[in-house]
Amino acid sequence: MNTANIVGNDRIPAIEGRELQVLDPATDELVATVPDSGPEETRRAIDAAASAFEQWRLVPPSERAEVLLTFADALKTDRERLASILTREQGKPLAESRAEIDYAASFLPVAAEAGVEILEERVDIPGKDVRVLQRPVGVTAAITPWNFPIAMLAKKTAPAMAAGCVQVIKPAEQTPLSGIAFVELGLEAGIPPGVLNVVTGTPGPIGDALLADSRVRKISFTGSTEVGRHLMRGGAENLLRLSLELGGHAPMIVFEDADLDRAIEVAMKAKFRNAGQTCISPNRFLVHHRLHDAFVERLADAASNLVSGRGDRDGVDLGPLIDDVAVAKVFDHIDDALARGAEIASGGGRRNPPGLTDRFPEPTVLLNTGPGMRCWHEETFGPVCPVRSFTDDEEAIELANRSDHGLAGYAVTDDPVRIERIARDLQAGIIGVNDGAPAVASVPFGGIRHSGFGREGGRWGVLEHLETITVSRIP
After folding, report:
1. Is pTM beyond 0.90 here?
2. Are 77 and 129 members of one domain?
């Protein structure tokens, strides 16, 4: 696999020859090396994007849509190869990697349709001919995370291209190969050179170069709230448009009327995907006191039966955590909770699959947890389920909202009054009611409060990449 940067028609190494190693988190085996690029390589990518924009913005939306549909077909055709790359550098089970490719491909036809449907509007003003137009913002950038490296890239590139924008992509340093393979395939599918460009390397120098260049008019970022704040500060000079999908820390409320089978199904699906390394994963479980003991028993049993191992092996449910820092955070949260009065219902230790790294914490269910513990204030990003009981709906919603974040939230109930209250009062941009997978390509995805702003998905994602222009003419 050619791992050089993709800049217009060219494949370029880091100018000073620096490289980053890409390691398999399950084994620490070297998978590949990629350029450790800096400001100069980033500027060259912006040059290529700016040049390509002059032509791409003039391509009719229907023709851009055809390119996106061809790209979607290519992703489906090349699903196994892409899934293998993803699993090798990220660690998740192959079944999840395949599902991620399918999810990524689903964004392309949705964006294609939305791009075609964004039409000129006319406003009825006496004595005037007034038109409202939508123009692409221009050169954009995508800074993508390591946990869903292909899906998050598709969520950003598809609406940008559908709107007529071009993009410089900075993939996460842990998972750059997925981003390179994704863009390579797009170019083979007919995306003109320069419309998508990839620059790999450590985040700081590349990010600062993107912020400093006035030709970059928008950045879409998925990652931590701290980096989101840095981008806001850095983008102020150029009044940069931002879409920020930041930290999660989602609550899950199991109400008194909940069906226990469904509650366990939702919890398992939402929590343990990608070993808990998911921004919309529930991080706090609030369970009505009448269901609490049965819920904990069944959740602990189901979690204990999950199989850990290399993602490319049959029957594996949980791959490794991405690195040692992620593992340390999981055990710091467990230790802190235990020191403050929590108890372990299941897990709490490490699994040691033969011949693999020690990045496989046991799926863990904690009892008697609460707001004084780190796991209730910080996103764990691992397979840990802190559980707390509640007595009434008011208490549950108050506890659920006791966070600065607001990306996702979950509820299990069939009571229409409760559902409406959750929709009205739960502080989250994405709410799953009896649904452990509420994120689909055709609906808006994004958070509120410290979880960011801006939306990806459906027509909302395309609108984020457009400028609204009024043209008023007196006949």
Report:
1. yes
2. yes
First to last CA, the chain: 60
Catalytic residue among 245, 362, 379, 464: 245
419-437 per-position pLDDT tens digit = 999 999 999 999 999 999 9
Which ranges of 393-436 would DSSP assign to H, the alpha helix? 393-400, 416-425
**104 and 142 within one domain:** yes
Q: Let me know whether 96 and 59 are in one domain.
A: yes
Instruction: Compute CA distances 233 → 17, 51, 342, whole Å.
Output: 31, 28, 39
d(CA 326, CA 26): 13
Range of the domain at 396: 250-433
CATH number (domain holding residue 346): 3.40.309.10
What share of the chain in percent tops pLDDT 70?
Answer: 100
Is 245 catalytic? The answer is yes
Q: Is residue 326 part of a domain?
A: yes
Same domain? For 428 and 457 the reply is: no
Q: Is 406 exposed, middle or buried (0-12, 13-18, 19+ CB in 10 A)?
A: buried
Question: Does residue 438 belong to any structural domain of this protein?
Answer: no
3-state secondary structure 143-159: ECCCCCCCHHHHHHHHH
On whether both 323 and 415 belong to a single domain, the answer is yes
* Number of C-beta neighbours around residue 2 at 10 A: 9
Residue 120 has pLDDT above 90, yes or no: no
Q: Of 96, 100, 279, 362, which is the active-site residue?
A: 279
Nearest Cα to Cα of residue 97 among 319, 250, 325: 319
Cα 189 from chain centroid (whole Å): 24
Q: Are 270 and 385 in contact (CB under 8 A)?
A: no
168 shares its domain with 239: yes
* Residue 441 counted as domain residue: no
Bridge partners (DSSP) listed for residue 445:
456
> What are 278's two structure tokens?
């998911």
Of 238, 249, 295, 287, nearest to 388 by C-alpha is 287
Give tens-digit pLDDT for 256-297.
999 999 999 999 999 999 999 999 999 999 999 999 999 999
For every residue of 296-337, DSSP letters joined together read HHHHHHHHHTPPBS-TTSTT--B---SSHHHHHHHHHHHHHH
Q: How many domains are there within the chain?
A: 2
State the CATH number of the domain containing residue 53: 3.40.605.10
Per the domain annotation, does 375 fall within a domain?
A: yes
What Cα–Cα distance (Å) separates residue 358 from each residue in 325, 349, 362? 12, 11, 11
Shared domain for 423 and 286, answered yes or no, is yes
Tell me: do 413 and 315 sit in the same domain: yes
For residues 160 and 456, the answer to whether their CB atoms sit within 8 Å is no
Radius of gyration of the chain (CA): 23
Residue 226 bears catalytic tag: no
- Separation CA 293–CA 405 (nearest Å): 28
